[in-house]
Design goal:
56 residues; rod-shaped; single chain; 96% helix; mainly alpha
């Protein structure tokens, strides 16, 4: 009988974690998009600098 209780609590913990992951997913995506935009901006800046150095 104790095993059944442990399985229930494990499942409840899994459900709770899944719920939090589902709720936090949009926030994660927004944060990841901002990081990617910063990375792309830095890459474009480096590319523009390299082009200008090549022209001189």
């Amino acid at each position: 009988m104790a095993k059944k209780i442990a399985d229930t609590t494990t499942f409840q913990k899994l459900e709770k974690d899944a719920y939090h992951a589902f709720i936090e997913w949009p926030l994660f995506l927004v944060r990841k998009i901002k990081q990617l935009e910063q990375h792309i901006a830095a890459a474009e800046e480096n590319l523009n600098e390299a082009k200008q150095k090549g022209k001189k």
